[in-house]
Amino acid sequence: MISLMLGLLMLMLLHGVVTFPLELNPPRVVVRYRDSVSVNCSTSSTDHDGMGWEATFGGKSLEQDVNVVTWTVENLTDWTIEPKCYINLNDGKQPSIVLPVILYKTPDRVSISVLSHSGPMVEGTQYQLQCDIQNIAPLQNLVVKWYKGNEPLDNVTYSNVSKRPEDVSATLMISPNRNDDGAQYRCRAELDLGPEGPQPHPTVTSEPLNITVHYAPEFLPGNDTVEVSAGSDVSLNCSAEGNPPPEMKWNYTAARNVKLSTEGRQRTVRITTATSTNAGIYICTATNIVGTATRTTTLLTMKGGSSSIIYTFLVIVVFLVVLVVLIVFCRRKKRQGHYDFIPVNQPNNIPMMPMSTTGEGNHDPEGYPTKV
Question: Is 133 exposed, middle or buried (0-12, 13-18, 19+ CB in 10 A)?
């Protein structure tokens, strides 16, 4: 039973080879619009009365005594062409084979835009980008690719079968953040025409869409509490990032020793010779068209640090030393008197007499007073 079935299968295969003796080279073609194309149709059979091609362009009438006929078109523009090679066998049969043809065309233009919006975008808001592709074929081989910079975002394919050129659009939803400010979005129309198609795939890319993202202010890192010794200088800095650049304002109790200064995006409160009246809450506010941010800084004034204590101690010590020196000097001054001394070569039994400091008297040659 099995041998009988195998024999029937062999007969069917042989019969099929005999009744369909045509071969195309190449078996299918991919042609760019308005390009040339050439395909050979051949047979191994000698039992035929001729071969030919039927086609709207490049058709070949029946040729006898040949084993190969060639279909050639110099400028292919027929989107629906289906060339067919045929052979007239002597038994009256006419086997034929259709050549699959893909005629493709790259788009005339690819552009990208933002739907229902113009101008800067706002952080956290959704927007729809649209890629418009004009005059492309075939649609079922189209792949639309989205990019942000060089980063792939999404691919869009189409299930519609259409051989003729069409206009088509693809969309992409985005929700930009502050890191996307200045980013470039692009879309690319790519025709994936299979292994018989050109490699790499034919592509047309849009001009980049540059986006501007506005976002609310955000403060840069800073201290929420600041300590300063009384009599010292201190600066309170406030800076924030935002787009557009935010306006910076300080809110505090005014004082003569408090000044404001601005350097770039930084707004600074400068306090010279701080006192206890400068202690308190200092509020910095950053504002732009998107939003407002607030930072509170608490300033604490200390009665004195270690350096102040040392300085005060030294001043007290110096004052005490000076005071002691003055007291000692004054006491010694009060104890001092005036004396005349006998030279060392005089007899030592002569008494030493104090000289009068009041009035005038008579004196003997030795300097002693005389009696009146």
Answer: buried
Q: Kindly indicate the confidence band of residue 207, based on its pLDDT and cuts at 50, 70 and 90.
A: very high
Tell the burial category of 20 from Cβ atoms under 10 Å away from its Cβ (0-12, 13-18, 19+).
middle
Which whole number is the average pLDDT over 196-208? 96
Residues in the chain: 372
Prediction pTM value: 0.69
Closest residue by Cα to residue 272 from 230, 328, 222:
230
- Reduce the secondary structure of 125-153 to three states and give it as a string: CCEEEEEEEEEEECHHHEEEEEEECCEEE
How confident is the model over 179-191, as pLDDT tens digits?
999 999 999 999 9
On the question of a cis peptide bond just before residue 195, with omega within 30 degrees of 0, the verdict is no
Considering only CA atoms, which of 267, 187, 254 is closest in space to residue 222?
267
Residue with tokens 């200092």: 282
Q: Which residue has the tokens 């004396």?
A: 339
The structure tokens 């019969």 sit at 15
Q: Backbone phi, then psi, for 22, in 5-degree steps? A: -115, 145
Q: Which amino acid is at 327?
A: I
CA distances from 213 to 176, 216, 262, 266 (A): 7, 10, 26, 22
Residues 146-175 pLDDT 10s: 999 999 999 999 988 999 999 999 999 999
